[in-house]
Amino acid sequence: MRTALTLAIAAVMLAGCVGMSRSKAVAPLAADWKTGGRVDQITLAKEGEFKITPEFDSIFESRVKSKLAECATGTRPLRLEAKLTRLDKANPVITTLIMGANVMRGEARLVDVATGQTVGEYQIGQTVVGGRMAIVKMGEAEEQMSDAFGEELCKQAFGVEAAK
User: Fold this and answer.
1) Residue 127 in contact with residue 102, Cβ under 8 Å?
2) What is the pLDDT of residue 5?
3) What is the mean pLDDT of residues 110-122?
4) How far apart are CA 6 and CA 29, in angstroms?
């Protein structure tokens, strides 16, 4: 077991980044929404204190919307009500020396724009671990975690892998 862990750590340090999902459906979309829904609006709430740039909200909306445009291609409009409860960025010095992790946790609620009814709810979580070879990618934590949120929602809600 110890050898396997050592090999996994070495692989991360040499290969770059490895992502780990902690996402799950709380109340999954019905089949007609999976195939017929598209996300037209995104709202973002943050619970707690985050060390983020002033541009984070626009980065999040843009990148999540881009990912969802790949998987939610129907004609029925949805609003994504996203809430972040955790966003930790890797320390660049530690990542350069050993490895680091960008961590994001949150919730996604998909709402029918026409009725205001919630049609799907998801817990979204992603951890990306990277070593010194991935310092540039790990340094773009806000972009990386926004992309991850969209990718996880595509997978969980619409059953589609978004392009990475």
Assistant:
1) yes
2) 41
3) 98
4) 40
